[in-house]
Amino acid sequence: MLVLSGPSYNELRNEQLIVAAITSQPRGLPFHVALGADSGLRTASWVQPESVRAISVQRVIRQLGRARPETVAEVRNRIINFLRDW
């Protein structure tokens, strides 16, 4: 999961994070966002901006990697475009 919610949301103490799913299966979908090798993940992975949800902070066990700020911004923009266009 890629955490999309920012510090101001995360500090609300509602015990939830807004996240997008990540897959290691290349599906060739133009709206998936590739995570670079610098993300720290072991395999090539793609963020799925069509799969966003809120999860409990208790489900987060440990951090496996870190996306660049530009990657997070791109995922957020694609989500906004989904909401605008669909």
Q: Mind summarizing the main beta sheet?
A: 4 strands, antiparallel
H-E order: EHEEEH
Mind telling me the C-alpha Rg?
A: 13 Å
N-to-C CA distance: 24 Å
What's the total helix number? 2
CATH architecture: Roll
- What percent strand? 25-35%
The mean pLDDT is 92
Total separate domains? 1
Count every beta strand, where a strand is a DSSP E run of 2 or more residues: 4
Describe the 3D structure.
The structure is a single chain. The chain has two helices and four strands. With 86 residues, it is of the alpha+beta class. It has a single domain, classed as SH3 type barrels. A four-stranded antiparallel β-sheet has the order 1-2-4-3. The longest helix has 17 residues. The model has no long low-confidence stretch (mean pLDDT 92).
TL;DR?
With 86 residues, the chain is of the alpha+beta class.
List keywords for this structure.
86 residues; alpha+beta; SH3 type barrels; 4-stranded antiparallel beta sheet; 4 strands; 24% helix
Helices and strands in order:
Layout: E1 2-3, H1 7-10, E2 16-23, E3 33-35, E4 45-56, H2 69-85
Antiparallel strand pairs: 1-2, 2-4, 3-4
